[in-house]
Write a structure and sequence with these properties.
There is one protein chain. Helix content is 24%, strand content 21%. By secondary structure, the chain is of the alpha+beta class.
């Protein structure tokens, strides 16, 4: 009888969620062909998700199911600056965004409901015309998304 290998706790295609420099768990959505029209679609997607623009940080916040673990949506290039999209769609097309939760402490673990929301939002934003990648710039697979939701992504 053949022996089937056991599935490791962290599969090889599990995305790397932690950006050590940012001190956050998150995913990136990189747009294939950014245009001002994709900025408009990004604005609509963020608005319909319930994200709120924070003028002080020039990013968006989505409280979602866990106010203690809000999801932040910021520009990936240059880091942290997004237009408000209200009266200003920006001067340049947004090339990509980071969808992340800030780590409050080294031992903290992300809220499961928020991980589900983070994955859902990343997938919605990717529909604008891009792909979801992890902190190592590797594309996230369907199994990888499930690893994120199950808390088995590499941290």
């Amino acid at each position: 009888m053949p022996v089937t290998p056991s599935i490791p706790a962290t599969p090889d295609d599990a995305p790397v969620l932690v950006d050590e420099n940012a001190g956050a768990w998150g995913l990136f959505v990189m747009f294939d062909e950014p245009t001002m029209a994709s900025n408009e679609r990004l604005s609509i997607a963020l608005s319909s998700s319930g994200a709120v623009y924070e003028s002080s940080s020039k990013s968006f916040t989505l409280v979602g199911d866990s106010p203690r673990n809000p999801i932040y949506i910021a520009n990936a290039y240059p880091p942290a600056t997004l237009p408000s999209f209200n009266q200003d769609n920006g001067q340049f097309p947004v090339k990509g965004v980071t969808v992340k939760m800030i780590k409050k402490s080294r031992s903290a673990t992300p809220n499961k409901l928020q991980l589900v929301r983070l994955v859902k939002l990343a997938k919605e934003l990717a529909r604008i015309g891009g792909k979801v990648v992890d902190a190592s710039n590797q594309p996230v697979t369907p199994i990888g998304f499930q690893s994120v939701i199950d808390g088995k992504a590499k941290v």
